[in-house]
Amino acid sequence: METVERLIRSTQELLWERGYVGTSPKAIQRAADAGQGSMYHHFSGKAQLARAAIERSGEELREAAEEQFASPGTATERITHYLERDREVLRGCRIGRLTADPDVMADPTLRAPVDETFRWLRGRLAEVVAEGKRTGEYPATIDPDQTAATIAAVLQGGYVLARAANSDEPFELAVQGLITLLQEASA
Amino acid sequence: METVERLIRSTQELLWERGYVGTSPKAIQRAADAGQGSMYHHFSGKAQLARAAIERSGEELREAAEEQFASPGTATERITHYLERDREVLRGCRIGRLTADPDVMADPTLRAPVDETFRWLRGRLAEVVAEGKRTGEYPATIDPDQTAATIAAVLQGGYVLARAANSDEPFELAVQGLITLLQEASA
């Protein structure tokens, strides 16, 4: 694998595991098996490398989500597939966890790919919900933007509850509770 | 204010703002206007002080939540009051954000008060939902433990989405989307 690619992937892993504040350039170089000179040849520093890593993680999140959104089935079925997809629950969300990182939130160029990823996700979920309204699956009271935010929030909050409990259980409970509410709304 | 109290409150604020990894003993001493000797006279170190601060934040979260849970009204009304309570959305949850902190998650004595707080919260929410089932407000399909986890997750995930967008809006959307789903379930 090319050095640039190794640097990006190692930074993705370290940001997921340790966050931005907890990730040092030294740790990145060690994980990527790259020298300091090589890292600074390709990137101006930790911030630029982190930006590339967050963008990559955002792309991966979008690709994985799109698989379920574009699958056949009713809106509730597609949302259910998305919610029930296999996830490394206890590792949390690679993108969402960065919102707890004050240095990421304070830097507009680092926050931008986090913001864009969640805007895309909420937008796509809103489209699926809107389709469910058009086909008569959901009643007029359901607002696509609101419901989309609720769905995205249940996943992000589910990770928080799971990590707090050191168990997947609260995540699974939160997801199943949401699926039941969506089914009740479409009943 | 007593030194111990100043140390705990300063640590609560720093953990909220910077997280555990990002909070140094020096920063705590500065914020508390306490000397190093004074801090180590009262606490064995950053971990013990953080434990006291997380416990305090957990107590405050429980007290604030109980106000809405114990208020009069239907289950949906009480949950709505809880969800719509004034919150410093962009600061996020003082307890929830700690789940992104690898050193807090790796230390059982630091994770314990985080875990206990969310267990209590989910338990109390499940009681309110169960009351709503007993009074016929919610149908038999609604599982109190699942719905409680969904409600807690929407708040925690709402914070994540709001911080990502640097705006309260996604939090408000997620909350209103959940309230509509709860109303649909009880209709």
UniProtKB/TrEMBL annotation, chains A, B:
Keywords: DNA-binding, Transcription, Transcription regulation
The entry's DNA-binding region: 24-43
InterPro entries: Homeodomain-like_sf, HTH_TetR, Tet_transcr_reg_TetR-rel_C_sf, TetR_C
Record-linked SUPFAM superfamilies: Homeodomain-like, Tetracyclin repressor-like, C-terminal domain
GO molecular function, one term: DNA binding
The HTH tetR-type domain, residue ranges: 1-61
Keyword Transcription regulation listed: yes
One Pfam family here: TetR_N
Protein name per the record: TetR family transcriptional regulator
Source organism per UniProt: Kribbella steppae
